[in-house]
Amino acid sequence: MQIDSSAVLWSAPERERAGRPLLVLLHGYGSHEGDLFAMAPGLPLEPVIASLRAPIPESGGFSWFPIDLSGNGRHDVQKVDDAANAVLEWLDDQQFTSVSLLGFSQGAAMALQLLRLAPERFRCAVALSGFVVSAEHPGDAQLSSIRPPVFWGRGTDDPVIPTVNIERTEEWLVDHARAESHIYEGLAHSISPDELDDLVSFLHTHA
What we know:
two-stranded antiparallel sheet; seven-stranded mixed beta sheet
């Protein structure tokens, strides 16, 4: 499994990336690299933005890992790790020393899993309408010692993310990150203007 470098959308040409921080965008299930990239004009200007395409073709778009169809909130953690490792391998080929993450839905799960696999590599993470895929992971001990800043945003009317995933993420974040939790009244499985304003403020502070 690997990231298609030719599909990455960049906010700046290569000649304009040196010395700047990187913000990696991770889209949701069945979507594509152009989805979150549409937010780029509203995001902080200093970081270079790279929007990645997930490696698995799915429903006319792409996914990072298979979804849980049972509704019990369980996922194959090894497959999530495989996808996260593909992102880390892609990052190995880049020339950035400061990297932050922003993911939506399944991409948010990826952002949190990347923190578990390599917490020392990331300044912060934004997880929108997403969740952590498991309560425990071998990387959690090191992550707990670093406790990176995490913005976790979700809506009260999200019909997509099971309650068990929300509850697990709430508990997990307490012990593994310096989390800012934002709940938006009436918001479904999407990103609101208020949420965008809040996450931009978070990124200005931490990314």
